Amino acid sequence: MSQELAATLDQWLQEFLDDMQRRSYSPRSLRSYRYDLLLFVTWIGEQAEVTSPGQLTSAVLEQYQMHLMLRPSKKSPQHTKAMSTAARNRHTAELRSFFRYLKRSCKLLSNPGAELESARQVRRLPKSILTVEELALLLEAIPRETPVGLRDWAAVELLYGTGVRRIELLGLDLEDLRLAEEFLHVLGKGNKERVLPLGQAAREALERYLHEGRPRLTQGQHRKLLVSYKHGGPVSENELLASIRQHARRAKIRPILGFHQFRHTCATHMLREGADLRAIQTLLGHADLNTTAIYTKVEVADLRKTLQECHPREKDFSDPA
């Protein structure tokens, strides 16, 4: 009977995903929901005491949360590292959404996921913030004589100059640029729109790319800003990141871990130069100021290091007697 319930949940999951698609969720989100919630469906199929939808209680879902705590991380090949708090909280949020849908669509009389609580997560400081000097070396290493180099130059200037997310950058259309007015239209998380100012450096890079680079790369009638050199269509995340990493290796700076590294770097550098936290929140598109406040912790960490290295009293403690 547990397998019958699992089969029913599997059907409901597909209907839930179809509903998400109609509401314009991204393919990436759909894949994440499908994979994570199928784990829950499989687990239910193994629970002999849970045989009907009415037995899907909050206690059962809490048992599943305990199961996730003990489940090894898929990123650990030796299966020695437990699933992270962030990953468990993602599963919990997806379960809440799924059961909210089941209640709304009258498949369940109540929503057992409403009482699920997320685990408290330690907010970690962003890693590998690039220095101003490293950004300058990276930009100098990008060739301006090739279409791909012009594309990558424009991409890095946008990432660092505006703090846009990866998905926001790759989703930019030509119509989103207002170079004459010096602003950029961005569609962010939850389809929230925001308008970002374009600095002189980003504007110059975009103008060169649009006039000398993109026409030599693009094929077809698509309107995406960033174009692949392989097929002339919209550039993929992997192609663009690999190209930027190649420039970083040539510049002999620390490795580029991902697009988000530029977002963290943008926010940190602005804060160091005296930008208001609310202004950074608006620029990054954070719904909650607490999310932006993580960058103040970066500043405290930097200040502590400077204190230990430079303050005479700290030197007294660090020097051997």
Provide structural commentary:
The chain has 321 residues and is mainly alpha-helical. 58% of the residues lie in helices and 4% in strands. It has helices spanning 2-22, 27-45, 58-70, 85-104, 132-141, 147-162, 166-170, 200-217, 237-251, 260-272, 277-284, 289-292, 294-310, 312-318, and strands at 177-178, 183-187, 193-197. It has a three-stranded antiparallel beta sheet, with no helix packed on it. Strand 2 (183-187) and strand 3 (193-197) form a beta hairpin. The model has no long low-confidence stretch (mean pLDDT 84).
Write the layout of secondary structure elements.
Elements: H1 2-22, H2 27-45, H3 58-70, H4 85-104, H5 132-141, H6 147-162, H7 166-170, E1 177-178, E2 183-187, E3 193-197, H8 200-217, H9 237-251, H10 260-272, H11 277-284, H12 289-292, H13 294-310, H14 312-318
Helix pairs in contact: 1-2, 5-9, 6-8, 6-10, 10-13, 13-14
Q: What is the subunit organization of this protein?
A: single chain
Give the uncertain stretches in residue-range form.
Answer: none
Helix- and strand-based class?
Answer: mainly alpha
Order of helices and strands: HHHHHHHEEEHHHHHHH
* Gyration radius, rounded: 24 Å
Shape: elongated
Largest sheet: 3 strands, antiparallel
Q: What share of the residues lie within helices?
A: 55-70%
How many DSSP E strands?
3
The count of helical stretches stands at 14
Give the terminus-to-terminus CA distance.
Answer: 74 Å
Widest beta sheet: strand line-up: 1-2-3
Strand content: under 5%
Mean pLDDT, nearest integer? 84
